[in-house]
Amino acid sequence: MSSKQSASKNPRKGAAPAAPATRAASPGPRPARLTAAAALVGLEGLALFAAGAAMLVMGLLGRPDSPQQAETGGLTVLALAVLPLLAARGLWLLRRWSRGPAVITQIMALPVAWTLFNGGGALIAGAVALAAAAVAVLVLLVSPAAAEALGAGPRSAP
Q1: Is residue 49 a contact partner of residue 85, using CB atoms and an 8 Å limit?
Q2: With 60 as the cut, is the pLDDT of residue 21 above it?
Q3: What digits encode the pLDDT tens for the residues 59-100?
Q4: At a CB cut-off of 8 Å and minimum separation 6, what does 115 contact?
Q5: Burial class for 58, CB neighbours closer than 10 Å (0-12, 13-18, 19+)
Q6: What average pLDDT does the segment 113-118 reach?
Q7: Per-residue H/E/C for 70-108
Q8: Would you say 60 and 68 are in contact if contact means Cβ atoms under 8 Å apart?
Q9: How far apart are CA 158 and CA 138, in angstroms?
Q10: What are phi and psi of 94, to 5 degrees?
């Protein structure tokens, strides 16, 4: 091993260690649109969590037709609540990876809203709220300010 090779492997004395490649150098301020998107996605995650917990409690303590089905449904909805909650946290912390799960969650919410809407009655209000939130988050996440803050803006040609 030559002295050049060993010198390149060892950092110089007094030099600051290199920052990990996984973190952004210095994220800027969070745009208002991204803050709003994170808040809406977080509210959706909390609503899913509450619905899953209610289903689970009703399956355990209530008298459903099929307790096993109610408990399994509740656990499934609780598990599904993890995705938007993690995405909301990632958006809040300006993590680039969080944009994908947040968009996927909104795309999945639109058919759910349509199904609720077709259910009629009091479900229509929930359907309208869910669809409005999903469309709002999608619009907020595709804004240039949000894309740039997450490091997902247009790339320049070399």
Answers
A1: yes
A2: no
A3: 888 888 888 898 999 999 999 999 999 999 999 999 999 999
A4: 127
A5: middle
A6: 95
A7: HHHHHHHHHHHHHHHHHHHHHHHCCCHHHHHHHHHHHHH
A8: no
A9: 30
A10: 60, 45
CA distance 4 to 2: 5
Instruction: Name the residue among 38, 46, 61, 45 with its Cα closest to residue 136.
Output: 38
CA 118 to chain centre: 27
Query: Is residue 130's pLDDT more than 90?
Result: yes
Looking up tokens 């999608």 gives 138
User: Dihedral (C-alpha) 90, 96, 100, 105: value to the nearest 10 degrees?
Assistant: 20
Mean pLDDT of the chain: 84
With a CB cutoff of 8 Å and minimum separation 6, the contacts of 95 are: 150
Distance of CA 134 to the CA centre of its chain: 12
